[in-house]
Amino acid sequence: MQKNEVMNDFKKLCEIPHCSCETEQMREFLADFARCQGFSVSVDEAGNIHAVKGEPKICLQSHYDMVCVGAAPHLELIEEDGILRAKNSTLGADDGIGVAMMMGAMREFANLECLFTNDEEVGLVGANAFKGKILSPNLLNLDSEEDDRVTLGCAGGINVSAKIGAQTVKKSGKIYEIGVTGLSGGHSGNEIHKNIPNATKLLAKFLAEEGCELISLDFGERSNSIPANAVCKALCAHELKQRGLAWVKSLGEGEADVLVNSGKILALINSFAQGVRSYDTQLGMVNESINLSTVKQKEGVIEFDFFGRAMKREGLENLGFETATLASVLGFEVKVTDRSANWAPHVSDFAHLVLEELQKQKPQAKFAAVHAGLECGVLVAKQPELQACSIGPNIHSPHSVNEHCEIASVEMMAEVVRN
């Protein structure tokens, strides 16, 4: 991989729309690229691209979908002071940089296996659906976001869905559009310890304190993001004014269809404990956390989506039980589903080799685990014989409009992958 090659490839990828669940153009591009490099290519029903050339001893793996927030997928790249970002949108460095590094390796090496997985950002869909067999004994995932560590383990995840009826009753009063918008948001795993404000929580507190009743709502963006925006229409008996981060727009006075379960909806949001639930003091990292991701109005119901993460199975079960109990008491119909398996840390010979190579560039590099889902956990569960680990360059604030990557870190990590 030549200097700047990875960044040039990444910039080309940014021109191709590839939001999660809308990845067709990127899939065609990558499959054609692999064939042009002489790889045998198979694409499964889930959209995973499995490419093999020669007799590989290593499989490189990245996902090719991106979280689209703000102006994405229409990316206007801004490069300054060694940083690459996108104007008013996510950048897609998670995991487009990994994809670009794989493209460089495919040009260069005659014996290589590559697995491009689809729709990682909406529940590790591609990895979970992958029915093929990784032929190489070693799996190197390129979806990590700190360049001084080799990741050997990750948190598992669950989704808790809570639904309640969206029946309405006519009431009269002052009608408002109210919102908390434009917050930073962030990754609900890697950044959950930063106490990033949850727009949904802030808005619900304002509504409850002011005695408002909901007419309609749209809270949060995606399952794996801390909400940056929450907007609703509401009825109130008295005049409202902007307070704190909540803005208010008067829509006049009159009759409106108010949600019968408005009180229960606000009660669930306001009584839910957002964020970190426990720390692992030995590892110095988050052990259990849960994010109130979205509250949406659709097809006659109001649906909550909570995303819990834990380093152990027991922690996931506790998060699911506690959240389901709280919602059930308030009259919600609850369903808890597994999202991804935890990946128990294991230091293999391959991991040692990767760490040794990384330490040539970063002497302080170390083994670590991450409080987020990695596809390694899913793929290793399917093939326990695999020796797997994950590395990647410094990527900051993924899943938010503040996402950016360090160009020097990308070039350094590309050299590690190459060697």
Which keywords apply here?
419 residues, elongated, 23 strands, Aminopeptidase, single chain, 2 domains, six-stranded mixed sheet, nine-stranded antiparallel sheet, alpha+beta
Task: Summarize the structure in words.
By secondary structure, the protein is an alpha+beta fold. It folds into 2 domains: 5-155 and 342-418, Zn peptidases (Aminopeptidase, 3-Layer(aba) Sandwich); 158-340, no CATH class. It contains 10 helices and 23 strands. It has helices spanning 5-13, 24-36, 93-108, 125-129, 199-210, 262-271, 313-329, 349-361, 375-382, 407-418, and strands at residues 40-43, 49-53, 58-63, 77-80, 83-86, 112-117, 138-141, 149-154, 156-165, 168-180, 186-187, 213-219, 225-226, 230-236, 247-259, 275-280, 285-298, 301-310, 333-340, 366-370, 387-390, 395-396, 404-406. The strands form 5 sheets. Strands 9, 10, 12, 14, 15, 16, 17, 18 and 19 form a 9-stranded antiparallel beta sheet that branches. Strands 1-2-6-3-7-21 form a 6-stranded mixed beta sheet, with helices on both faces. Strand 1 (40-43) and strand 2 form a beta hairpin. Helix 1 packs across helix 3 and helix 5 (199-210) crosses helix 6. The longest helix has 17 residues, at 313-329. The radius of gyration is 23 Å and the shape is elongated. The protein starts with a helix and ends with a helix. 52% of the residues are buried.
Q: Sheet bearing the most strands, described?
A: 9 strands, antiparallel
CATH level-4 homologous superfamily of the largest domain? Zn peptidases
**CATH classification class of the largest domain:** Alpha Beta
**Outline, from the CA principal axes?**
elongated
Integer count of domains: 2
Q: What proportion of the residues is helical, as a percent range?
A: 25-40%
> Helical segment tally?
10
